[in-house]
Design a protein that fits this description.
With 530 residues, this protein is of the alpha/beta class. The chain has 2 domains: 227 residues, Rossmann fold (3-Layer(aba) Sandwich); 257 residues, UDP-N-acetylmuramoyl-L-alanine:D-glutamate ligase (3-Layer(aba) Sandwich), CATH 3.40.1190. The chain is 41% helix and 16% strand. The chain is built from 17 helices and 20 strands. The strands form 3 sheets. It has a 9-stranded mixed sheet with strand order 13-12-11-14-15-16-17-18-19, sandwiched between helices. The longest helix is centred in the last third of the chain and has 26 residues. The protein is elongated and about 80 Å long. The N and C termini lie close together (11 Å).
Length: 530
């Protein structure tokens, strides 16, 4: 499991080593890992290392020192390195080492800005080492203008790639909030531990691939700010039927979804649930929608009855429902009142009570989350939620008492106690109508199967309350991977929502057969985040 921390947590973890006089050791380890990551990236892209042009943008603090030491190492490997000093000072020891290695130093000024931007944009590698984890408010003045000019030049004719040192300058290490301009990185090499702002949107938009360089502070880190499930975590959490299992012991999911306007939502939700291993699905809804569900999913038992008349282990409610679907909305409220685990999607969200429980999983997109927060008396709109996804999903979970899953390129799942998961397993092609209905079905099926023993999620170090968030995160990860698999069958092209459900069993099978020997490991100090 990937654990991510705030910049403040990482700095606190560094304090005992700094007090012991190991500050330079930490910096050298970070720089060494950064330099080796640059070399690996060059080789992976089929580019030569000897003679490659490297431009490092440096600030005056330790982040700039990391970049300068790394550039000195690269210069020693025969690369042509240029440091652009964006401030009136630089880390003195690192700057001296860079000079001894034969690096070239340029001072940023408005008169030289266009020339420096063009030179950086044409380099094989640009290292962004201007701002570190303690910076607030983003780049200013000439440094901001330089980054903006480099970003614009690279969109036109840049051939190289950008590596962020610890994090892209302008991305908040704690929250992922962005103060533009930010130079989008192809690779972020971060030190000691992943930063939470790199695993939450919009910061993740600028981070590219993230690699962690261990520097010796790891034993001093405390409770992570957020987590990300990896292959082995998913394999441990997947439910597996017992040898003598039957359809009822595998779990029955009740589905209250669809309407005359959106009957397909019910079909897709049921297809997602069936693909995710549930023993049986019982559908409740309008007769015309039930007929469509029967035709598409003959395995589903359909009726137009009441929630109380159906024995299930969990409920899925809300997909494809609107404010005028009074009977369906009443069923959704009854499902929540039953005390069973519930995944509540789309149209059910405005109809639910303000006070909920952790076993109720809300699955809004940014607009729906903004509406939920407004209903609870908190200011905000969709742009505000999208600009601060981590804060918004935490706030919603704390206010409602529910587990809240915020859908997006990076899906965040927050438990009311503060635990957060971040999953980014999918493809942009998942942004298609009905994709969220399939996701709701997958999570509903997992809730059904997890309900009897959610406490087993302590296997991945979680409190019981956070187990529901782990279930939802597992669903998001499976959904993302199924979408990617569906796209891969089309040579990386577009998909329809039904294709996600079709691809899920194959993805499930691959994950369930993983073993420790199947987890990729590096011999170096770096750990890639996937």
């Amino acid at each position: 499991m990937i654990s991510a921390y705030t910049g403040t947590q990482v700095r606190h973890a560094e304090e005992p080593l700094l007090a012991a006089g190991l500050g330079d050791v930490l910096m050298q380890r970070a720089a060494h890992g950064l330099a080796h990551a640059v070399i690996r990236e060059l080789k992976a892209r089929g580019l030569r290392t000897y003679g490659a042009r490297v431009a490092v943008l440096t600030g005056k603090g330790n982040n700039g020192g990391d970049g300068l030491y790394a550039a000195a190492f690269l210069a020693g490997r025969g690369m042509r390195t240029t440091a652009v000093l964006t401030a009136d000072a630089a880390h003195p020891q690192a700057l001296a080492a860079f000079g001894r290695a034969g690096g070239r130093v340029r001072h940023l000024s408005e008169t030289a800005l266009a020339e420096l931007a063009a030179e950086a944009a044409d380099a094989a590698v640009v290292i962004d080492a201007v701002l570190g984890t303690g910076a607030k408010g983003g780049l200013r003045g000439s440094a901001a203008n330089l980054v903006q000019a480099i970003a614009e030049a690279r969109t036109q004719h840049g051939q190289g790639f950008v590596v962020a040192c610890d994090l892209p300058s302008g991305v908040d290490a704690d929250t992922g909030a962005v103060s533009e301009p930010v130079l989008p990185a192809d690779l972020t090499v971060t030190f000691g531990a992943a930063k939470s702002g790199l695993l939450a949107d919009p910061g993740a938009d600028f981070a590219g691939r993230v690699e962690v360089v261990t520097i010796g502070i790891e034993d001093h880190l405390e409770t992570p700010e957020l987590r990300r499930l990896e292959d082995m975590d998913m394999a441990r959490l997947l439910p597996h039927p017992a040898r003598r299992a039957h359809k009822y012991s595998r779990g029955v999911l009740g589905v209250v979804a669809g309407s005359a306007d959106y009957p397909g939502a019910a079909v897709l939700a049921c297809r997602g649930a069936l693909a995710a291993g549930v023993g049986m699905v019982r559908y409740l809804g309008p007769p015309e929608v039930a007929d469509l569900v029967r035709q598409s999913c003959p395995e589903v038992v359909c009726s137009s009855g009441a929630v109380a008349d159906n024995r299930v282990q969990a409920w899925l409610v809300g997909s494809g429902m609107g404010p005028g679907d009074h009977d369906q909305l009443q069923r959704a409220r009854d499902a929540v009142a039953s005390g069973l685990p519930v995944v509540a999607d789309a149209g059910a969200l405005p109809a639910l009570p303000d006070a909920l429980a952790p076993h109720v999983v809300l699955t809004p997109h940014a607009g729906e989350l903004a509406a939920l927060l407004a209903r609870l008396g908190r200011d905000g709109d969709r742009p505000a939620v999208e600009a601060g996804t981590l804060a918004a999903v935490r706030r919603a979970a704390a206010l409602t008492g529910a587990t809240v899953l915020l859908k997006g390129a990076t899906t965040l799942v927050a438990a009311p106690g503060g635990d957060v998961f971040s999953q980014a397993d999918g493809t942009p092609w998942l942004a298609t109508a009905g994709s969220g209905d399939v996701l709701a079905g997958i999570i509903g099926a997992l809730l059904t199967q997890a309900a009897p023993d959610v406490e087993r999620f302590h296997e991945v170090g979680l409190a019981p309350e956070a187990g529901w968030a782990a279930v939802a995160a597992l669903g998001a990860a499976l959904h993302g991977r199924a979408g990617r698999a569906a796209s891969d069958t089309n040579s990386g092209g577009p998909i329809a929502a039904g294709g996600i459900a079709d691809s899920l069993p194959q993805v499930w099978g691959k994950v369930s057969t993983l073993s420790n020997s199947g987890v990729r490991k590096r011999n170096s100090h770096t750990q890639p985040l996937r």
